[in-house]
Specification:
Elements: E1 10-15, H1 19-32, E2 38-43, E3 59-63, H2 70-80, E4 83-88, H3 91-99, E5 105-108, H4 114-123, H5 129-138, H6 148-156, H7 172-177, H8 182-213, E6 215-219, E7 222-228, E8 248-255, E9 258-264, H9 272-278, E10 282-283, E11 287-292
Parallel strand pairs: 1-2, 1-3, 3-4, 4-5, 7-8
Antiparallel strand pairs: 6-7, 8-9, 9-11, 10-11
């Protein structure tokens, strides 16, 4: 982190929709927990940003998301606080930052997860296993460690939002607080074991969902495999996705007053962030998302 110290009130905003965001928030909480005035805010796209928590004397640390539209909201946020540290890894957000001519403090890099960048920025070296496992999942580097998928699914079974005050079942102190200790190793191993069981259940449910609800359609001229379901990742489609017949995977659902769409691909020549940006969203090259008042594709396809 910058040699410039942080004092005064701190507001930590993390992406509340996934474990990369939750882990980023937990790392921020660990770093600033000893300060007398810390506010943790979980935020997701489509929600109104809580400007009421910002003060001119506070330091804002935001990780794993930006506020859209970028060119309007991010300068407004920066003007509302004394210091704005932004940590992100989304291709479209980094491009929007550069296009807006902003030079926000923080760390941004495509190819690293937000939790990895947050740890690197706030603590430096010696990244805990839990951070690396969650980070590699988020950037699709699933082959880096055989524990990545079961650890992710084991974490899904736990309460992981890094809110304050801490709850009795808060898992993060065991995973981050004394990284490299026997207790931390045991916590990771236990979650991996639970995740192997959860993975079998999730894969069975995904097959059942796709057998009845997945359908072929077209989005922006691309062959899409879609499914109306909430909280899905690309793994939803494993039993029916065919790379020779499909360009993208699109799970979608109605949430917070609009349709929410995720876009995934396995093709190197397709940029999901560009698709999402066309519809007012953003994300990564292989995974992105957007929100819309209407559904931009035909719903009459067959499973």
């Amino acid at each position: 982190m910058s040699e410039r110290g942080i004092d005064g009130p701190v507001v930590c905003v993390y992406h509340s929709a996934d474990l990369d965001g939750h882990c980023s928030g937990a790392i921020m909480r660990l770093r600033f927990d000893a300060l007398p005035d810390v506010t943790m805010v979980g935020h997701d796209y489509g929600q109104s940003f809580p400007y009421d928590v910002l003060r001119p004397e506070c330091t804002l640390v935001m990780a794993d998301l930006c506020i859209e539209p970028f060119a309007e909201e991010m300068p407004k946020i920066a003007a509302s606080v004394g210091r704005f540290i932004w940590i992100d890894h989304h291709k479209s957000a980094i491009e929007a930052h550069d296009a807006a001519g902003m030079e926000l403090e923080g760390l941004r890099r495509i190819g690293s997860a937000a939790c990895e960048l947050t740890w690197e920025y706030l603590f430096g070296a010696d990244m805990p296993d839990a951070v690396r496992l969650l980070g590699r999942y988020d950037v699709w580097d699933h082959a880096a460690d055989e524990r990545i998928l079961p650890f992710q699914m084991g974490m899904w079974t736990l309460s992981t939002r890094p809110d304050l005050p801490r709850s009795d079942d808060d898992v993060w102190p065991r995973l981050l607080g004394e990284h490299g200790t026997r207790e931390t190793t045991g916590a990771v191993d236990s979650i991996v074991a639970d995740g192997k069981v959860a993975r079998r259940y999730v894969e069975l449910q995904n097959r059942r969902t796709c057998a009845t609800s997945a359908f072929d359609t077209e989005l922006d001229g691309l062959r899409a495999l879609a499914c109306n379901t909430n909280g899905a990742s690309s793994r939803l489609f494993e039993s029916v996705y065919d790379e020779t017949r499909h360009d993208i995977m699109v799970p979608f659902c109605w949430t917070n007053g609009a349709w929410s769409f995720s876009v995934f691909t396995t093709h190197d020549h397709i940029d999901c962030s560009a698709i999402a940006r066309k519809h007012g969203g953003g994300g990564h090259a292989k995974a992105a998302g957007f929100r819309s008042a209407s559904i931009p594709f035909d719903l009459t396809g067959q499973p």
